[in-house]
Amino acid sequence: MIDVSGLVSTILNNQVNIPLLYVIYEFLLKIPVIGSIVTFLLSIIPLFDVPIIRLLIGFLLWKPMWVLLIIPGFATLGTMLLILPWLERKLVGRMQWRVGPREIAPRTRGSIQLLADSLRFLCQEVIIHKDAHRLYFLQFPFLYFLPVLLPLLFINAGAVGRPLVPIETPYALQIMVGLISLMPVFIMGVGWSSNNRFAFIGTVREAFMYFAYEIPFIIVILAMIVLFKTSNTVGVVNAQGTYWGIVLNPLAALVFFIAAVMATARLPFEIPEADQELSFGPFIEYSGIAFGLAYVMAYEKMYVLSAIMTMLFLGGGSGPVIPYLGDLSYGIWFVIKTLIILLVMVNLRGVYPRYRLDQALNVGWGAILIFAIVALLWSVVLGVVL
Amino acid sequence: MKKVATPDYTVADKLKTHVAALSTAAKEVVLPLNITTHYPRERKRQPECFRGFMLFDPERCISCFQCSFVCPANAVWMKEAPSGRYYPTVDHGKCIYCHFCVDTCLGGALKTTKIHDIAFRTMDEMVVMTEDMVEPPEIIREDVVYVDYVIDREDLSLKRTKGKDELIVEIAPSEGVPMVSQCIDRESCIACKVCTKVCESGAVSSVKDEEKLIVKMEIDAEKCTGCGLCVKECSMQILRLVRRE
Asked: A99 and B35: CB-CB below 8 Å?
């Protein structure tokens, strides 16, 4: 027998504290018709001595649910996915003396371009060519979502002493690294099942890049674990009370950033996808909604990696408290920091040309690996010896 | 043979170039130097001498065929009108818009415009007949702003002005170089009288030489317009256009 009332009291005792919502509630009660509707809704009490509407809102405001669904979870992720490609195209356009998307809703400067694009992806036919491994071809893009989205469960968007994390576990960073390391496996599966020469080349390049960035990436995470003496995301943010991780170990931040750019195949390291010669590499055979998923997945991966970087190096959601927003202000600071990292990551394409594969491997196995080891040693000196 | 070596960059040089590239990008994000004209809502203002679609004024045409002769792309063909005269047609599939025909037109019948956005549905439509060149083609104007390109000391910038740019250029009819037809070898004239038939101003007349009992042609320099029709038609090729004194 499930203890339902116990669950209800758990939910209602662990709520996100946003004073602004109470102000809105008081204001709603004063409006003639809407006020009476609100009081009527609050009078429906079927069970547990709590109004049903309070239960529903309480479920959304339940801390783990709030973090997972609203900030920095799926709602924020969805908004980011809608505005980030537009921002990228606009900013890169400005860098290159172009205008960027403009023709769809010109008054808003083409801001709903991605909505129009996704509408097109939805309406387009998904073509599965006859040489493709049908089963894997269709399931891998969807399976890819698991390792991309699951790290969101462990991201702490709170500040020191105010954790906002769906699942608190001492192995959070290890689990996230494990999930992120899983992503290229699915890309390789996608490339293999496509059964296309360009997809094969892209897949092999992805495998090469995987080894080039993964080892420095893991070493840098290890360096931060050594520095903070914990791998719990709550502990990681708490340890950055006085100094942010980027001040304590700037080299680690640099290596993490470059590894993240390599992992998401952004432009200096856009080797697996290589628009000009491989035309989206492993995903070349996809069309319609499957291509839309593949297109969006790169941005999701980027969001997750930027969120981890915000958490590890920029102090999570710490920042000046905005009045009336309570816990929401931490989430807002977290999203702002993540957005800044995302924009820097995305706009590198306006600055750098693409590295050759051997040059990128040289960077990955050479400079980045050495920097990562130096960062680890520095963390040992700072965290253990001092 | 001299081998070009790769420049040897130090770490400091590399860092400097990275910082320069990133700061340039940041500067362009804040203050972009944009030179895009939003056609068709905006139109670049072309100079008066812009070589666009050609207009034709049949009143001024003397059917001298010069436009057809001079065309390097062989795009100008003369077609016979119901009146018996020949007027030019332009094949826009071949035309390279050099406007030699406009420059060479003696009567100033061909005229340039600033219209550069003409579209044809088929290849056959690209041969624009004379009657379609009299009036400017129908254009759907969406522009409310015209743009001038201003060249500063080092950069290019745009100057936007509200209003529509007039696409039809008003040019005063060219006077042309005053020419006159002249016979260079009167002995060879066989008096076929083609020049008399072809001359529109009646400047060529036949003169009878009583002593030798032959007929020679004579050109009245006052009446001659210098159109060159007789020069073209002369069967003995003894007529030349010379500059009028």
From this structure: no
